[in-house]
Predict the 3D structure of the following.
Amino acid sequence: MQTLVHQDEPLTRSAFLLAFDLRKQKLVNRGRLGYLLRAAALAELLLAGHLADDAGKARAVSPPKAREGSLHAALWKDVNASRPRSWGRWISKEHAQAFRLVRDDLAAARLIRVERRRILLFPIEHITPRKPYVSRRLTEQVGRALRSGRPVARMDGRVRVLAALSASAGLKTVMPSRGESRLREDRIHHLSTPVEPIATALRKIVEAATGAHTHGGGG
């Protein structure tokens, strides 16, 4: 099957579309999706040579040809204007804004539908995919990357990175159970190799955020 993670399609878009649970008709893990989106943008910048890993810290190398106002452009500008900081710092910073930027990008591309209304005084936002089959096939491809015995080196590079990051974020559409995640640790480690510092930082941030939410009484 032809991959849907095209070379010219940002991984941020694919990661957002991958988070749709089509059976429940909603986004999963919405609270951590911003972290995943920032990690995906950082991974693309790293793999393209626009950023470099400097002893566990992100360092700007060359500006990307990214649209002004996009997540990639905003991230590179922030990294370039700062002293070297950890990948985790850049993943966790302004993650809610990352969600909005990618959401608006997908809406402008007519890949998702965003409906807003109010119930009493509370604003409600409902997001649905315009092309559900894209989310379905992305889920299938990432699921195979995580579960199959196919050698990692023979996999499509972008599917490999998307699988590594979505698993590191514990995205329910591809990693439905904590037990399965533990069973696949070795596989995830091999998938993560090209972006290992980003995947590791993402996993730690999500674990810390989940722990804080649980201990705070949020379940």
Confidence is low (pLDDT under 50) at residues 1-6. The two ends are 39 Å apart (CA to CA). The longest strand covers residues 112-119.
